[in-house]
Amino acid sequence: MDSVFASALDSLNKAGKLAEINPRVMELLSRPKRIMDFSIPMKMDDGSFKLFTAYRVHYNDALGPTRDGTRFVPDLTLDEAKALALFMTIKHAVSGVPAGGGKGGVKVDPSKLSDWELERMTRGFIRNLKPKGPKIDIPGADIGTDYRTQSWMLDEYEQITGEHNPPAINDKPAIMGGTVGSAEATGLGIFYVTKAACADNDLDLENAKVVVQGFGQVGATIARYLYDMGTKIIAVSDVSGGFYNEDGLDIPAMQAYVAENRVLEGYKDAETVSNKELLELNCDLLIPAAVQNVINKNNADQINATMIVEAANGPTTPEAEDILKEKGIKVIPDVVANAGGAIVCHYERIQGITDDYWTIDKVENKLENQILTAYRAARDTANEFNTTPRLGAWIVALRKVAKAVEMRGWV
Ligand code: NAD
After folding, report:
1. Catalytic pick from 33, 82, 91, 103?
2. Alpha carbons 59 and 337: distance in angstroms, whole number
């Protein structure tokens, strides 16, 4: 299945069937509530003109305002934005966040823009999107966006409306009305879930060999948490290629290298491997933390991990998951494993609305409790239905969304 939206619908339909969700709700959830497909006209630094394609998808808002990420990637498609918005609907529901699912972005390679062009394009995204405010839709960060872009987005929104309104944009720095701990939230959530999943499956995490694909905000953070507890990270990669050391990589040194060079390319203290080889390495734990569809029908049979924890959104296709199941490889699904960012965005919203800013201990304690509650609900539901953790998670979420849709009288 090349379409990540088709993969998302596959999980939706399988979970809906198992849990006997109202067919009218299933029909409602078969497509997004609203799609914005728009352009950002821009004069470049050299005086030339470029027109960027942008999307924002509001998938379903029965549980609350749509929220979440903005992707700046060169190959962004509407299919991807729709899938990610559906994942967000499920992720919020399974983790008890009163929000719907939203996602969007711009088809652009941010590394090809000057800082000033990136700022103008980011502000152009907000101007042309005409965001509706924190009670309707809240854009956050994703691949290619960060504290800087989110600060520009909030400032542009506030310039347009003429009022301070921190909860209008997520993933901004604490000084702009954000929350402490937001940069690490997804990685930390994955760390909590990984520890719980390893304990449930008798996998000794401290003595495990771990492979991480993707060394950005999420991949580097989870690699670092595991490294700090003494676990061996035997391979990591980014878009430029992979690095391998059977005795364990020096993750802090690799983070420092990336801070200086933007990518891992050129790192000297390890053997090089391709991204394809990296996914097929013999390991206890494989953590895909880059892009979607990387574990698919072409390589699933060659995966040599005991367990996969999905840090990226949609890294495993449905065909691959069937093969992995046959091989006895457990997959801890994205909608639970990487929900830490979505959960802490909720804390960011509460703080922005109340102007009462929390300590890091409060953020981390609440996150641990909330994400583990979601993990256990998905696990127990999977056991109840004798199905995968992924479908367990989707069933937990679908039941909540269906109830809200029915109570609202939409179907
Ligand atoms: P990022 O841009 O910070 O990092 C992405 C990393 O993946 C980079 O190291 C990049 O070089 C690498 N990469 C890109 N294409 C690759 C490829 N084809 N092969 C190997 N590596 C590749 O992004 P991020 O925020 O770390 O997000 C990573 C994944 O996690 C995405 O799927 C995103 O949707 C998901 N996610 C992110 C968050 C968050 O809070 N940032 C939350 C939930 C899920």
Report:
1. 103
2. 21
